[in-house]
Amino acid sequence: MKTLTSVIVLLCAGIASAANAAALKPGDTIQASNLDARQTDTFEGHAIHDLLTDRMQELIRKEGLVITLAASKPMVLGKDFTAATKANAGKAKYNPDTRLVEGWVAGIPFLDVTADDPNAAAKLVWNGYYAQPIKNIQDYPSYAYLFISEKSGLERRQVWRFLRYYMKGRLGADKVVEGDGSILSKTLMYATYPNDIRGLGLFVQRYDSPKLEDSWVYLKSVRRTRRLSGGAWMDPIGGSDQLNDDIEIFNAHPTWYASYKLLGKRWLLVTANSTAVTWDKKASGDAEFPVIDLAHAPHWNPKDTWEPREVWVIEAVTPPEHPYSKKVLYMDTQFPRSYIAEAYDKKGDFWKWMYYGLKTIRTGDGDHGMISATGFTIDYQRRHATVFILGDDARLNTPGIKAEDVNLQQLEKVSH
Prior knowledge:
By secondary structure, the chain is α+β, with helices and mostly antiparallel strands. 15% of the residues lie in helices and 34% in strands. The chain has six helices and 20 strands. It has helices spanning 2-20, 48-51, 54-63, 79-87, 120-130, 408-415; strands at residues 29-30, 42-43, 46-47, 67-69, 93-95, 100-102, 137-149, 153-166, 183-193, 201-207, 214-219, 224-227, 259-270, 305-317, 326-332, 338-344, 350-362, 368-379, 384-390, 395-396. A hairpin with a 5-residue loop joins strand 16 (338-344) and strand 17. It is globular. The N and C termini lie far apart (82 Å).
């Protein structure tokens, strides 16, 4: 009888909670002070507790994360991107023996992935590797790396230049492939501020094969370029909290990871259409970067708007030599970009949380493409964060840029 009474009490409490649930509106916030009360409230038909991962709940409750709700918007994908995906549908095949994709031309290789496909997770990762909706050229004249400590707040900042040229899967171009087809992309990045690192740079050539990428770094101390080991993809970027592998959350050839597992599909609050002013170059102090809550400890929480999106949840298991044991990725079901990831150490303990705020912009050829307006890599064991802030001069498909503009000689030229 006592057990039956307890069940009745719990049922009544649940009914009362549901009856008192509110439909939240854009602009409403979810924070530590109201998290418990808003668990059964809804937004756009989804209960709040269903829109937050357990990790996000913990960050709200214990780490000061505040989520401001925004109405969801249809995602605008590039016409060239959509056309290439449609034109090449069904051509790509996944080979489970080699773990490679055969027959990919351009666009999303696997458009209709289903949860019951035993290779679903691998296919989704390959989608992200080959077909992020970013056009043929990523041209970022300025982006900042901010180094943030829980104790002291913003420690220092760096400003870098980034240029990536895609040699394969080119959209809306006369040639879908440039060169002999062995190279997927070429990337040039170098520091422009502060003066003590100005000229420090990196050139990376990524192959369309499991072959490790070729990387060269320019060292100011000897005024020479040096070739890096093939394992540089797993190394930290400078003194940051971000590995090369963490750029855009996942920056590795899919076969370099040991395995993938699809954990499911769900709805999640993410930043799909960033509305925040990320970098106010006319301001100073904390006001220069209004997209970060620098004024309040732990000083690294994002300040943007969040909307519901349906995502795939993918577990990516690393190779033994990797610093992490695994990453858990939250990738949009409509296009292959991840918004959030969790990284775990070799003991299986939570280590880092990665959050990217996405935004659609007009490209240099009048189409649309997607950029990461911000990228947060937060090390909760070290109590330190590295935040990527993209300048408002970011461009995609800049007219006039050619493959030969992204090479080792260019790194040496700009670094002197």
